[in-house]
User: Fold these one by one.
Assistant:
Number 1:
Amino acid sequence: MTKRTICTIFTILLIFAALPLFGAAQKESVKDKVKLEFFQNKEEAVGTFNELIAKFEAEYPNIDIEQNNVPEFATVLMTRLATNDIPAIIAMGATSDWAELAKAGYLHDFTGDPCIDKVHEGYFDQLKRQTGLNGLYGLPFAVNANTVLYNKAKFRELGLSVPKTWDEFIATAETCKAAGQTPFYLTLKDAWTGMVAFNALAANLQGDDFIDKRRTNDTTFQTRYVDVAEKMLTILKYGQDDNFGFGYDDGNTAFAKGESVMYIQGVWAIGSIQSANPDIEIGTFAMPVLNDPNKNRLVSGVDTLFALAKNTEYTKEALLFINFLLEPENAQYYIDQQKQFSAVKGAIQKDPVMEGIQVNFKKGLITGFPDHFYPAGMQVPNLVQEFLINGNVGEFLKIMDDEWDKVQQRQE
Amino acid sequence: MAKSKVNSTYLLMTIPAVLLFFIFHTYPVLNGIFYSFTNWRGFGDWDFVGIRNYINVFKDTRALDAYFFTIKFAVFSTIIVNILSLTIAMGLNAAIKFKNFFRALYFFPNILSIVIIGFIFNYIFGKIIPPVAQGLGIEFLSRNILGNPDLAWFGVVIAAVWQASAFNTILYLAGLQTIPEELYEASLIDGAGKWKNFRNITFPLIAPFFTINMVVAMKGFLQAFGIIIALTNGGPGRATESISLIIYRGGLQGGEFAYQSANSVIFLIFLVTVSVLQIRFLQKREVQL
Amino acid sequence: MIGRKKTNWVITFLIGAGSLFILFPLYVLITTALKTPLELAESRLAFPVGLHFENFITAIKMTNFFNALKNSLIISVSAVSITILTNSMVAYAIARNIHRKFFKGLYFYFVSAMFIPFPIIMLPIVKQTHAMGMDNPAGIIFIYIVYGLAFNIFVYVGYIKSIPRDMEEAAIMDGASIWVLFWKVIFPLLAPMNATLVILSSLWIWNDFMLPLILLTKRTMLTLPLVQFVFRSQFTTEYNLAFASYLMALAPMIIVFIIAQRWVISGVMRGGIKQ
């Protein structure tokens, strides 16, 4: 063991130890400019937000907004929280992750801020229900909708009109089938797509106090969801031959190519369908779950909300940015680009494709996504998928209750 | 014989690595195990809950089902991939034309990203096999097997083996290099056939690589996650839910971090046990030259 | 010396037939990258009508390709090269002392880490690296080197065990220190294993998605696997652009493989070892 060897080894160790220093983050000390991170979860919205940010920065040159969009939003958010690296401004969906953030006390409470007047209050209720708290920890910006899409040309061909009740809905499907056409292209290989119909049914059939009562164990899935489950099975009868063999992408393409008359999906699929077939005439309507047309509600959830970190240095500037985004013209720009509906007063979605569901927004026949209120660890989509395969209603509802109880108990 | 002193160079070669490994790997593991005794969500406040998480895992039929599936899937895949890889490696090692081209080609599946593999196999199982099967009158293949709760797992096995085989093939190829030509020549002179060659020369001499491949393959398949997400996302229903899938989905997207950590710890113990048993069993068969 | 071996045509044919299972997906990959979404909707199998090379240009722009490529290269090359140099050394020390309890223990200590599922260490390692200022490329390189120890030691030790000791004994008798012995004698003999592990490590690190995702916090540090996600919005995947991007990202790996695989079969092995 020569001295030389010792020195070499020591040097190697030193290099190892010093490596981190080479990459030590250089804190930017840009004077006079306020830098805010805008952590945004939708990849497809990056371009739109960039435009809005540019507009904002032109108006407020001393504020620098840096949009950050990464894959696996939920995972990254979680790891950042673990290191207390909370982004200043967050744009995300009204998911259980967001609710957890609010409950853990990381978010700013918007109650009393002037900007909340710019938003339809109808959505506040949904959000408060989700967190279970009194404060408002997110500002709704854009909302989506679970719809039934239909091929207008085929409807004309078959002499169909938009069904307004459940019975009419099934009759429409029957007509398609009798004419040798597939009523719905079901994409149940992707479990989450089954939730579109499931949510529409559950929202209208479960009773508005279901979640509250279920949380206190005053009711069960087995009591309230029988109709939901049975109606799901009915829909199955009107799918194509291999309901479970095809997924979301296949479905979009198939519907675009005219392989089915209707397609149970949300508005988010429209863009994808149109790129597969720009000539298709798409119409939309809310799934008529009940036989009273005045009671059928469209499932619409907050697709994007803005949240603010509670302990950020630059609350004032951040609020300026959020305020800016909530201006009707900016919100309008966003929904025109992203093909969604706005929660902001004065921003109306005018795309003719979505005419069929605008009436729901106008009349306020809207309700939230039931599954957003289930405990997060429940992993429901696969349970629904399993049920649809074996068709056993009683067993399915019991599993739903058991899983709810299990997860709830684990999280106490 | 007196115990000789360890040459200090050896110690110097290893100790730094051990220290660094402890700091950057073992310590986080201990940390993670610690959290499994709490109800930490990954952020915010937490409390100690003792072994409640562990008890819950054993009560969780979904997790137990996942263990069954994962074991079934891993055993099948490990066996198939090893047979396949060894065969391919021997083929690539033989006197074939375009050797380098084929070697590069067979390596290819392993560099493809999961998204591509998912895309391709979904397409094959959904749009290529059913029409062909219908034409040939094979009933059970006429629909996408990935949509069939009883057959989906086999589809995943095929895709997983396809992707993983390159890795094992490379290892076997390296192993085959260690066998001297002379042994085959001598055996040729003795008039031995191909199968005898394999049984008496090839297989025993690549024993260490067989062990490595079996262990690595088993471990890899037991932890299968990406390929399942890409093909079935655990479906149809819960038919192909693997342990890793449950842990990721529940832990990272479901906010049940501590509970799934407990699940991970149990899984870890399970993995280690399986692998240690495997190693001990297989190493007894190894030949030291 | 035996002359050139006769080509075994049977096996060549079988290997060729088997390669169809790989050529087909390759075909789908390349043709998809050259299509428009409309063509893709038409048929996933058909040959593209026009060769839309602009997909590649779009993909480059959307992913900030060359920056990500640079990041991936820096991380992979550094990590792999240092890994090979260091991990082999540790493995050698263990392999030659495996009969001693201490080193045997070390072996199992390192190897057992292969079985630790990532979720357990995920959050703790994020906290740790952040606290130590290692959430940057240098830090991640370091982590790769350390984490590689588990598998690499497993493989190296298996291989080193089959290297006879006579050469080492001869060298020691000539007065060489272990250090010199390792670098001058053993390391060259490890060429096939070094090459194999270069390939396997490169594969892992180049395609690794999780560690960069959670450790690299700045957008400018993104590696190739991460930027691929720019094509996957919440509900759609632009397959044609995504595949164009993947093809470009694959290229370096293929080069590594082609170069390295020659060493896996290096002739040094045959003569030198089994005398």
Number 2:
Amino acid sequence: MINGSQHTIEADDDTPLLWVLRDQIELVGTKFGCGIGQCGACTVHIDGKAAKSCISLISTLEGKTITTIEGLSEHGTHPVQEAWKTIDVPQCGYCQSGQIMAASSFLEENSNPSKDEIREAMHGNICRCASYNSIEKAVEVAAKNIS
Amino acid sequence: MKSENKFAFSRRSFLKTSALASGGMLIGFNLFTSCATTAEPPVDLSLLDFNDFNAFIKIADNGIVTIFAPNPEIGQGVKTSMPMLIAEELDVAWKDVYVQQGALDKDHFTRQVAGGSQSIRQAWEPLRQTGATARMMLIMAAANRWGVKPEECTTKEGVISNAKGETLSYGDVVLDAAKLEVPENITLKSPKDFTIIGSDAPNVDIDEIITGKPLFGLDYRQKGMAFVSVLRPPAFGQELVDFDDSKAKQVTGVTNIIQFGNKVAVLANNTWAAIKGKKALTANWKEGTKAESTTDHDNILLGLLDGSKFETLRADGDVKKAFEDADEVLERTYESPFLPHNCMEPMNFYADVNPERIKLAGPIQTPARTASRVAKLLKRDEKDITLEMTRMGGGFGRRLYGGFALEAAEVSNLAKQPVQVVFSREDDMANGKYRPAIKYRISASIKDGKITGYHLKEAAINSNMYGLIPNFFPAGAIENYQVDVAKYNSNITTGAWRAPYTNFLAFAEQSFFDELADLLKVDRIQMRLDLLKKVDKTADERIQYSADRLEGVINMAIEKSNWGNTKDGVYQGFSTYYCHNTHVAEVADIEMKDGKPLVKKVTCVIDCGIVVNPLGAKNQVMGGVIDGIGHAMYGELTFKDGVPQSDNYLNYRLIRMDETPEVEVHFIENELAPTGLGEPSLPPAAAAVANAIYAATGKRITKQPFVKNM
């Protein structure tokens, strides 16, 4: 189940979800950054929890519910997306779908985080343009809007 | 405001208009015609159509305005800020403007480049002239229709009014306007009348970015396209002997394997199969040129600094004598490693080469140069080539070098099918155009408690500082001043990395000044201010920094950072720098925890003239500061026998959110023409932190990365 619709995937067992999303289903919002789960650009939700799609092998995902940036909200109006827009977070923008997916999953678990909790939670997502101050602020704004 | 009209141009060659077949008007402009060496021929208006211009204003007859952004977008925000310049003078509401990325058009542009923090500075005059001229033509068309003089008409947000209170929208008169002669002597707005310039404009691609729409090079798809992973020599200097592709061919999805030069391309119907296929290749390599290691480079560069083979880039007075006569000499050596760019979007490019035409698409900072190189490589006419610029997942200088586009073109040509070459992160880090390792040796002579001489020596891999850098501060402030450079040619490929040379030179000099002030027992910041007082800008046209503007940012940084009045346990460091025509001062506040520095806050004051888009500008400055700190603290790529010793983020550390300071940004308010912002906030950041670490620990850091050398 990807973004609410059923998909049957034919791929080698070791194929990472990232490439199934990008090359087979043509959902290119999920980005390739490192391929080893270290940069967070490929973050999606698997059964509601943030996961690195570049190291999530397709063989382990049967029956799972997957949400990508394209499916986070119908019209880009998830509170985290709205906050990203309010703060105007992106510079190059490449890592931001991963950042948004990580932040939205984190806020599901903790909707009233401290600054340090936000900084800790977002540790897994690199922004090479270093828009970190803006990401931090946007997560705070999103938290306020959610609670 | 005094207009710095360096870009005088002939209006005739500058602007072109035409009626659109589909209704509406085009106004095209030749950006920087005045900078081109050859004059443009007169324009044949009959030849104009939608495809003729890539950077222009399109006003549809329903009044919708489209502005094409001419320059590549790498995250520096020019896709938003450049059209703002046009919209301001055109006098349309920013919310009614649609921005589209222009494609490469070598006939009509001479600077479609993202580099050197120059896009806004160089476009400031021409783009506003374009908007203002279009507005005047729309007014003239309305005036003709009403039978009144143009001077009696005013505009507001796309609507023209006359003295009687009648109104016409731009869309009502656009077709008439397109038929008019291009008017001369257009007056630009005074900055006090700006309504768009100086106001926050969100990133024009924000909706697409937050919803994951295809925007970037890797998102580019065409029917029949093969995904390509390329096997390249694992060490610099190596050459391919032979390879075995029997296992690679068995990988599901692999469709073709092609050798080209020293490389082997694996084509597949999806990216993962291409990557897997490449991993299944086995190859034998031989040494072509000597394999080099970081220890070799360290010895060679230190040897160059100790030696006497230098090129002198600037020499004032008599440095030799100043040092001979000195009471005291301070000498320090500063060392920096190679750095990969690590754009988050790995290098990639699309090419479709066929006998009729060549289509290129992808993320590139130098589209024009890249198209030329492809034409030369494939012995084709440049006219056959089109190049579409995608949004880029970072640039930082790496995408100035389009080798990846050439690879795509070559593979497409051999495979006779459209291809997209995709670098893995490992490919990206191992096949860089790295920031070269550089070492500086700075010495100052002191006589009677005064600085009498300053000698800066640079030893670098492959290339040395260039342009006006030898004339940056403290050039002009010290009577006997000399800059000498030497280089070693390595087979490791190097290139421009965000704020080339100054990204480390600023660290060296601004660390040195603090130490010099301590030796002289004078206030560290006051020493810099005193030196600035000695700079006579008019005496030397090579000196383009303004002592007054540097003083301005320094004084505001003192005030805004609460310099010298921090809480217990907070230590401050100061740094100031001028580069890319922009003046910056920064103060870092750090705390020590378990012997490690935590950078808590950086106050950055910046004078870049008029701030076109404060929202985007702030992002650039915050990013530059953190980028500078991150690489100074952690960044390092070493080599062993030609092999890069880091290949991905398990063994290469980039700064992450929990390590970043809060960056407080202050812009100096003035009405001077805008200067660059993509780079200038980066260079001073490392020294501000190192000077704060000294304040906290009494230890001077002279070598990057800090984590390994403190």
Number 3:
Amino acid sequence: MTPEEQEALKRARRGRNVALGLLLLGVIVLFYAITLVKFGHH
Amino acid sequence: MTATTMPFAAPTALPSEWRDYFALTKPRVMSLVVFTGLCGLLAAPGHINPVLGFTAVLCIAIGAGGAGALNQWWEADLDARMKRTAQRPVPQGRMPRSNARDFGVALAVASVLLMGLAVNTLAAAILAVSILYYAVVYTIWLKPRTPQNIVIGGGAGAFPPLIGWVAVTGHITLMPVLLFAIIFMWTPPHFWALALFVKSDYAKAGVPMMPVVKGEASTRRQILAYAVILFLVGLAPWWVGGAGAIYGVAALILSGVFVALCFPVALRRAEEGDRMKPEKRLFAYSVLYLFALFTALVADRLILGPGLAA
């Protein structure tokens, strides 16, 4: 693998990790909000 | 050819980025799905907490994304043969085929579970049916076998407003079924208009689209026939009292224009080197039609209140 390919691989992986991190954060916030709404009803 | 013998299970040439996974969800199709789902939710009688309403629309979007990814997993070889789809991540070798499948299954399962836990069981069940309908009934079963693929497969795209409605009410009534019927009848003229001007692409890929199998003349006649049925179905929510005058007038004008645009398509034959202007115009209008009709439905509900027979 050439240094350019390695760099591209690293960049793609970093991008995926950031996207996954943001996604997880979004899920946490969403579940928190849903829990508040659901408990609010009882 | 089965999935396991297709040539795109080969090692990937390029690393996949988050954009490739996003592309698997067919974002452009998803925008229409999200819109009609949201309209179903907003037009339904009753109230849903905004957080749960957002969750319901999100689940519809994620479910549609999962179904889109499963479609691209199954059709990788087909996509590679068509200009319109050859740039997708799997045929381009930017990710292994199995990643598209796993991503699709994960999204589909997550969307149904979340819908069931946060919104209601019936909405989750219909969402599950719609995903299976698109991924299995349409993609795997009908699309490669019959020129009626679009007619029956169109049901998959018709589910979102039904799901949005049921997310609010918790049960199925006549109105959401009519919304389902509108998209169901809208799909054939919408897709066949497209198929008429990308006919050579579908023929090359061996997909039995109506213009390829039954010929152009038959397809053109059927486009008009469906448009006439759509005209009647489009007005039905008003007739049955499920929507008011705002929707009724909008449906009359929008569906009237739709039928009017279908006439030149139905009555002509494409010449050599034809630029297919009437077909392209019909296709563009069909997208606008659906957006406008559902917007009118929501406007009607918000301004005039829920219909008597909703």
